[in-house]
Specification:
23 strands, Immunoglobulin-like, about 0% helix, Glucose Permease (Domain IIA), mainly beta, elongated
């Protein structure tokens, strides 16, 4: 599952003479503060067409919100596609003292309020009629625990066609990486396809080969469509496909969801 790192911005001053601040990650999730009539207007923004879940942490000195609350603020919001939403307004508590704030945010793709359609029956994420062993299933002792509890790893040679297990819109891809290894430091080098389902969950296909993606962001795919080719990139010890369905959670986290496959699908989990 893709993890999105927090960013941190801080400003301090003796007077309200600071221009608007803005910080974006991945040209997708943004946060910022705009000064309006001696108010610090904190906002979150989604620069793409697909919902994201964002958690904002604001630490302050000599600032308070509209009801006089001071200190730290933690706010989690689902930000719809291509929208900017206000989340907090701050003003000086003591007009004669220095004020200061820092903000950081974490985010993940999808809607934390998504309700998975448990009646849906998935296709196996490879060519129909083929069969590949599950080398790490649900509750796998190596990495399939916690938020990854319901992920499946299919052992397959590099270059094996990977197909969509469920229909949806492609919201993110990577195919420029050619590194892989058996420690978490390699996680950033995974190639992948992420598909947003109609119920707000995401289907995620990881460890694809270098230049092994065959779909584009914004493309709608049907179950069974070719997505790309398996590989051994990222945090991966052997060539395989990591597949799971996720729901976004606060603080940039996520939760895998147990799924069922259509009758006749050759999947041993």
């Amino acid at each position: 599952m893709r993890s999105y790192l927090a960013c941190i911005v801080g400003l301090s001053a003796l007077a309200f003479n600071v221009s608007a601040s803005r910080y974006c990650v991945e040209d997708w999730a943004c946060a910022g503060v705009t000064e309006v009539d001696k108010q610090h207007k904190v906002w979150l923004s989604n620069e793409r067409s697909y919902p994201i879940t964002m958690t904002l942490l604001v630490t302050t000195q000599n600032l308070q919100d509209a009801v006089g609350t001071k200190g730290d603020f933690e706010i989690t919001k689902v930000v719809p596609g291509n929208q900017k939403i206000p989340v907090l307004s701050l003003q000086q508590a003591d007009p004669n003292s220095r004020w200061r704030y820092h903000y950081s945010f974490d985010w993940s793709v999808g809607d934390m309020h998504a309700e998975h359609d448990d009646s849906y029956r998935y296709l196996a994420p490879f060519e129909q009629g083929k069969q590949f062993n599950v080398i790490q299933g649900y509750n796998g002792g190596f990495t399939h625990h916690g938020s990854e509890r319901y992920a499946l790893d299919f052992g397959m040679p590099v270059g094996t066609p990977v197909h969509a297990a469920r229909e949806g819109v492609v919201v993110d891809t990577a195919e420029h990486n050619d590194l892989g290894g058996g420690s978490e430091e390699y996680s950033q080098y995974a190639n992948y396809v992420i598909i947003l389902h109609d119920d707000g969950t995401t289907g995620e296909y990881f460890h694809l080969m270098y230049q092994g993606v065959e779909v584009d962001i914004g493309q709608y795919v049907q179950a069974g469509d070719l997505l790309g080719y398996s590989g051994n990139t990222g945090f991966s010890t052997v060539p395989h496909l990591h597949f799971a369905v996720y729901r976004a959670r606060p603080k940039g986290d996520f939760q895998s969801i147990p799924i069922q496959f259509a009758e006749g699908q050759k999947v041993d989990s």
